[in-house]
Write a structure and sequence with these properties.
About 60% of the residues lie in helices and about 15% in strands. The protein is an alpha/beta fold. The protein binds flavin mononucleotide.
Length: about 280
């Protein structure tokens, strides 16, 4: 059978795992191509794919992640096994075997057959032999549509966040001194977006924390100017104010990016699972 083995590696450790898998399959008589993900060919024409990466801050290397994303459609019809080289997670929790959030989303998206987490003591050949026994017998699982991946979902979260923040601004502005409303707004905006980022990153297929933070900050910037300053308070020059506009924008960006990045590193919990199903 024609098998593609590919990996994302920074310092060579994961490349060695990929090559061991490839040699094991070659020894069993298969026709194997083994290459880093940045040089990996189109998976069409292969009977099976094995793709893995080192974990850095609980994420796969971008080269491996992007290769899977780019070929996601083709991979839904090719049996695909995934692995993560995660020696530090194994030290932190010797039972850690679940894929990280980004890998979990990729697996669901392509209907991957299986995922294996390697630590320094795992027997790579044994896993490769398990795959060898299943080659030709296993079909990909049905792929799942990941709600978190849709841009509409990302916009929805941004709109919620903006509505919560601007409500405090719009209600307090006519009732109290503008300074007070501005301070409350500058405090509520990052808190609201940090909570939303925490929730958004728990949904399967969520965009990266940085992409979400950029999108939401841009939405707040545009919506604040067009709606708050034009409709609610036409006389107030929002863009000219550091404390009413630029500071909350900076805080929204920092809060949503950092809360999203921290959430992404946390293991998937059962409440995340049920949230992902409801989403
Ligand atoms: C900055 C940094 C972050 C890391 N994050 C993780 C992690 O989140 N989980 C883990 O198990 N290992 C983590 N590691 C360990 C690497 O995954 C490990 O060294 C791996 O063997 C590197 O593979 P490579 O040689 O293919 O790049 C991290 C290492 C570094 C330097």
């Amino acid at each position: 059978m024609r098998v593609l083995v590919t990996w994302g590696s920074k310092r060579g450790g994961t490349a060695a795992i990929g090559e061991t898998i490839a040699h094991t399959l070659e020894d069993a008589g298969h026709d194997v191509i083994a290459v880093p993900a940045r040089d990996a060919p189109d998976p069409r024409g292969f009977d099976a794919v094995i793709v893995g990466s080192a974990l850095y801050a609980s994420r796969w290397r971008a080269s491996a992640r992007r290769w899977v994303e780019r070929h996601a459609r083709d991979l839904t019809s090719i049996p695909t096994w995934m692995f993560s080289n995660a020696p530090l997670d194994a030290i932190a929790d010797e039972n850690a075997s679940e894929p990280s959030r980004d890998v979990r989303s990729l697996m669901k998206r392509i209907g991957a057959v299986d995922h294996h987490r390697f630590d320094s003591s795992t027997d790579v050949c044994a896993w490769a032999k398990e795959i060898e026994r299943e080659l030709g017998l296993t079909r990909p699982s049905p792929p799942e549509e990941l709600h978190g991946h849709s841009l509409v979902r990302l916009f929805e979260y941004g709109a919620y966040g903006w509505a919560i923040c601007s409500m405090s601004f719009a209600v307090l502005m006519p009732l109290s001194r503008p300074d007070f409303a501005i301070v409350i707004h500058a405090i509520t905006a990052p808190i609201a977006f940090a909570l939303l980022a925490r929730r958004y990153q728990s949904v399967d297929g969520a965009r990266t924390p940085l992409a979400a933070a950029v999108m939401w900050t841009a939405m707040v910037a545009v919506l604040d100017v067009t709606l708050i300053s034009a409709v609610v308070r036409p006389s107030f020059s929002l863009v000219g104010s550091v404390t009413a506009y630029w500071l909350p924008l900076a805080l929204v960006f920092i809060a949503s990016w950092s809360a999203g990045a921290v959430t992404e590193m946390l293991p998937v919990t059962s409440s995340d699972e049920s949230r992902a199903i409801r989403a």
